[in-house]
């Protein structure tokens, strides 16, 4: 009875070994992938481009089990997503598309999925609008439409948004000062032409008789003595008069055309002979004759009164006291 249980146990063990040996080998798989860079810096209010690389690091037996067909990158609300593009491969087997608030990078066919140590590279264009640190979430999928199940774990990318770098203003070129204009020199005044003096008329022909004036109280009034013509170089003396005013040419040789003015006893100035240069019978000569006539007329007025005054004084002096 004891031998039967032992035989049964050995039979069960043998059947188990046969079954194990007949079973196919079980799949061994470790899903692992990375995305770089895990950190980057961006500038607020400035558009810029960031390039990412997703690499499959999974170990699978058989290798066809550990493949990646899609990568999803979510962008935070503090960053504006402008666009996305593939960097590699560029043969059209993978595409990058902006979907919602992120980027979907996927294989176009099941055969284009990447296996162990393979990678895809894509770039995004963003414009941060807030300062600070923000996380970009990244996930990988085995399916090409980024549907479950998820491949491996999620990766977070840290982004630091800093103030923008303002361009350095170039120095303003110094404008040289404009040259100071020279003062405008006024034109010289045009000299007026000097007036041409009118020619002085000179008498021609023989000399005219010189009038002789005498005081009104003289008993005998001498008539004007005509001026005689003489040869050149000779001199003629004026006619003598008992008194009064005698006008005539000069009597001295070399005197030229001097005019002799003789005031006789009729005026109380006996023996005084004035020599006045002869002038042409123009305006100055007439003025001189008028002046002499006025002086003679004034003498005629006051000389009789002076004589009467003298007589009165003589008579008083002679009368006994």
Roughly what percent helix? 10-25%
Number of helical segments?
2
| Major sheet details | 6 strands, mixed
**Radius of gyration computed on alpha carbons:** 76 Å
State the strand order across the main sheet. Answer: 3-12-11-6-9-8
H-E order = HEEEEEEEEEEEEEEEEH
Secondary structural class: alpha+beta
Please tally the β strands and state the result.
16
Describe this protein's structure.
The chain has 321 residues and is α+β, with helices and mostly antiparallel strands. It is 17% helix and 32% strand. The chain has helices spanning 3-22, 283-318; strands at 28-30, 33-36, 39-43, 48-56, 59-61, 70-74, 79-88, 94-99, 102-107, 119-128, 132-141, 150-162, 212-213, 245-249, 258-263, 272-277. The model is unreliable at 19-26, 222-248 and 250-274 (pLDDT under 50).
């Amino acid at each position: 009875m004891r031998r039967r249980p032992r035989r049964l146990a050995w039979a069960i063990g043998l059947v188990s070994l046969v079954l194990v040996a007949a079973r196919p080998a079980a799949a061994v798989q470790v899903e692992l992938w990375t995305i770089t860079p895990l950190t980057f810096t961006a500038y607020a209010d400035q558009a810029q481009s960031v390039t990412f690389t997703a690499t499959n690091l999974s170990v699978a037996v058989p290798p066809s089990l550990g493949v990646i067909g899609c990568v999803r990158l979510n962008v935070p609300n503090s960053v504006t997503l402008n666009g996305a593009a593939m960097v590699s491969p560029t043969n059209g087997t993978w595409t990058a598309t902006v979907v919602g608030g992120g980027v979907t990078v996927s294989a176009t066919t099941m055969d284009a999925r990447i296996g162990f140590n393979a990678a895809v590279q894509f770039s995004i264009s963003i414009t941060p609008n807030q300062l600070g640190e923000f996380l970009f979430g990244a996930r990988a999928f085995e399916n090409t439409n980024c549907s479950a199940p998820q491949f491996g774990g999620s990766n977070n990318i840290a982004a630091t948004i800093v103030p923008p770098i303002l361009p350095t203003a170039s120095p303003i070129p110094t404008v040289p000062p404009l040259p100071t204009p020279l003062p405008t020199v006024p034109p010289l005044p045009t000299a007026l032409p000097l007036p041409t003096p009118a020619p002085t008329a000179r008498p021609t022909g023989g000399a005219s008789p010189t009038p002789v004036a005498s005081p009104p109280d003289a008993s005998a009034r001498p008539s004007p003595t005509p001026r005689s013509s003489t040869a050149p170089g000779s001199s003629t003396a004026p006619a003598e008069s008992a008194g009064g005013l005698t006008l005539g040419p000069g009597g001295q040789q070399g005197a030229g055309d001097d005019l002799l003015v003789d005031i006789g006893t009729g005026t109380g100035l006996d023996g005084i002979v004035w020599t006045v240069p002869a002038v042409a019978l123009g305006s100055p000569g007439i003025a001189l004759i008028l002046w002499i006539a006025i002086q003679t007329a004034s003498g005629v007025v006051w000389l009789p009164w002076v004589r009467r005054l003298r007589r009165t004084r003589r008579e008083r002096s002679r009368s006994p006291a």
